[in-house]
Every structure is written in C-alpha cells, then in structure tokens.
Design brief:
Length: 219
C-alpha cells in the first residue's frame, strides 16, 4: 500500500512540474512561452517622417552608429519610433523593480536576427546629479552602466536570452567606493534614463517583455 502511495505522489509531482518546465522551455527559441510585449529595434537609413505618439511595436535606429532610446515610466508603449532623426527615440515601460531588491516584476529577453556577422551593443545610461546632489545644475553628469548587452547575429537559428540585468538596471558607482551598485530603471538616485544603442549593421533586434521575475545580483 505504501508503495502505491509513493508512486502516486511521484506522478503528482511530475504533473505539477511539467507546466513550469514547459513555460520556461518555450518553443525551442530560448524564450519563455506565454503572453508578452514585443519590441523590434530596426536598423535602417535615416528617416525624416515624424513618428511621435507612435503606438507600434518597433523603433528605427541608425544602421551604423549610436542612437539614444529615451525611457519613460508607464505602460509599455512606443512614444517616438524614429531614432534616426537626431532627437532619438522614446519608449515607455513599467518600473521593473520598484524596491530595487533585485527581483524584477517582469523580464526582458532578446535575440539578434538578420544577416549573420552583424552586432549591436545596448547600454543603460542616466543623469547623475553630481557632487552637489541637485539635478539641473552645472555639475550634472551623464553616466553609463558597467553592464552592456552585446547582441551578435551568429550563424544558425537565433535564440533569445534573458537580458534583464543589462536593460532593466544601471550599474554605477555613486557612493565612490570603487564598486558599481545596482539601480533599477527610474530609481530616484538618477534621472533621464535611456538606452544607448551602438549599431554595427544589425538589421533587427527583437525584445520580448514577459511577466516573469528574474533575480539580479547587486554587483
């Protein structure tokens, strides 16, 4: 009788684990399964058409060189899709970790697609109030995270990877101890958050935002 009970418990445990495993496995492309917000970052030649208040799911960036994607807190939305016009693009997304405890309320996954051999680097930046601790004064300084996401289009089928650490946080040394600390996007310690997108010919970078938490280290 005990043996039967143990077998039934083992079967129940396996059944309970299958959905979680399937959710993380996705469809073999490296991303989780389930609902998500899509954002395609498309490398292209300069565009002149205004794309403010654009509620699509793509942002155009320079095919070669740097583009800034300015970040605003709120529900997921593309606010300005044209990053090639000299003013940068604008994207809205929720605060990923309001308590800055290293556990995100959602996660972002990315993969590079298009012609093999091309790449792009994304780095989170923001404005530091400087030594006086007051924003909007002469000693304000733009700072960049020590963590960057390097997207490389290799040969073979591209797969998604979790880039929450690189894109949802900024690692900077604000206390001067020589070690970069972790700050979530929209943390009050900094202002004017943005992604710096350095493109080396990558045509498309796909981002997916899932309601799945990720544990992110403090340093």
């Amino acid at each position: 009788m005990k043996k039967v009970i143990y077998i039934l418990l083992a079967i129940a445990l396996i059944i309970a684990l299958v959905p979680a495993t399937a959710a993380m496995a996705g469809k073999g492309n490296g991303a989780p399964s389930g609902s998500h917000f899509n954002l395609n970052i498309i490398g292209t030649n300069d565009k002149t058409a205004p794309m403010d208040d654009n509620n699509g799911h793509r942002i155009f960036v320079k095919l070669s060189g740097n583009t800034k994607i300015y970040l605003t807190e709120g529900d997921f939305a593309v606010l300005d899709a044209n990053g090639t016009d000299g003013n940068g693009a604008a994207f809205q997304l929720p605060n990923p970790d309001p308590d800055n405890d290293g556990v995100t309320v959602y996660s972002v996954w990315a993969r590079a697609v298009g012609t093999p051999g091309k790449s792009a680097t994304m780095t989170t930046g923001a404005t530091d109030p400087g030594p006086d601790g007051i924003f909007g004064t002469a000693d304000d300084e733009v700072v960049f995270s020590t963590e960057s996401y390097v997207a490389v289009r290799n040969t073979g089928k591209p797969k998604f990877e979790n880039v929450s650490r690189e894109l949802l946080y900024i690692y900077v040394d604000l206390d001067g101890d020589g070690t970069a600390e972790r700050y979530n996007l929209f943390n009050d310690a900094l202002q004017d958050y943005f992604w710096s997108y350095d493109n080396n010919g990558l045509k498309v970078l796909q981002l997916r935002f899932y309601e799945i938490s990720t544990d992110v280290e403090a340093e």
